[in-house]
Amino acid sequence: MESWRYPIPVVELASIPKQPSTMASKGTRAGKGLLNLWTTDRGTFPVVILCTFALTAAVGNGVRYLMNNPDVCLDKSKRNSTMHYDRENGADWRSRRFRLANIKKNAINQSRQFDSAFEKEENKNVKR
Fold first, then answer.
1. Are 98 and 91 in contact (CB under 8 A)?
2. 53-96, pLDDT tens digit by residue?
3. Residues in CB range of 37: below 8 A, 6 or more apart
4. Contact, 65 vs 96, CB < 8 A?
5. Model confidence pLDDT, tens digit, residues 27-49
6. Which of 45, 52, 71, 83 has the lowest CB atom count within 10 Å?
7. Domain for residue 90, yes or no?
8. Residue 100 maps to a domain
9. CB 68 within 8 A of CB 84
10. Which long-range CB contacts under 8 A does 73-81 form with residues at least 24 apart?
11. 59 burial class (0-12, 13-18, 19+ CB within 10 angstroms)?
12. Is residue 107 part of a domain?
C-alpha cells in the first residue's frame, strides 16, 4: 500500500549551509555607522553623484550671476559710485538674455511684438 509514495531523500544536516538569522544580520547593520551603511549600498552612488552635479551647477550659476549682473555691487568700483546703473553693462546683460532667448526660432520670439527689441543696437547681431 505504501508503494505509490516517492522515496524521501535523506539529507545530512552538515551539508546544508547555515543561513544567518535575521536578528544577527540586523545586529551587524545596526553596529555600522551611517557613513558605512551609505557607502555599502550601491544605490547610493548615483544619488550622490547627481546631487553633487546639481549643487555644483547651482553654485556656479549663483556665482556667475553675482559677478556679472550689473545690479549687484560686490566690486569696490561699483560700490563707490552713487549711480549703480551703467548703460553699457546693462545693455550687455540684456543682449545676452535676448541672444539666448533667440537661439532657436519659435512663434513667440518671432512675433511682431518684439520688433522694437530687435531694433535695439545691442540686438542688431541677432537674426530673425
1. no
2. 999 999 999 998 888 777 777 777 766 666 666 777 777 777 77
3. 29
4. no
5. 676 677 777 877 888 888 899 99
6. 83
7. yes
8. yes
9. no
10. none
11. exposed
12. yes
Domain holding 104, by residue range, is: 85-128
Residues 42 and 49: their CA atoms lie apart, in Å, by: 12
Q: Please state, in angstroms and as integers, the Cα–Cα distance from residue 59 to each residue in 65, 73, 123, following that order.
A: 10, 18, 29
Supply 3's cell numbers: 508503494
Mean pLDDT of the 14-30 span: 60
Beta strands (DSSP E) in 1-128 are: none
The number of residues in the chain equals: 128
In a domain, 61, yes or no: no
C-alpha cell read off for 2: 505504501
What is the C-alpha separation between 30 and 25, in angstroms, rounded? 9
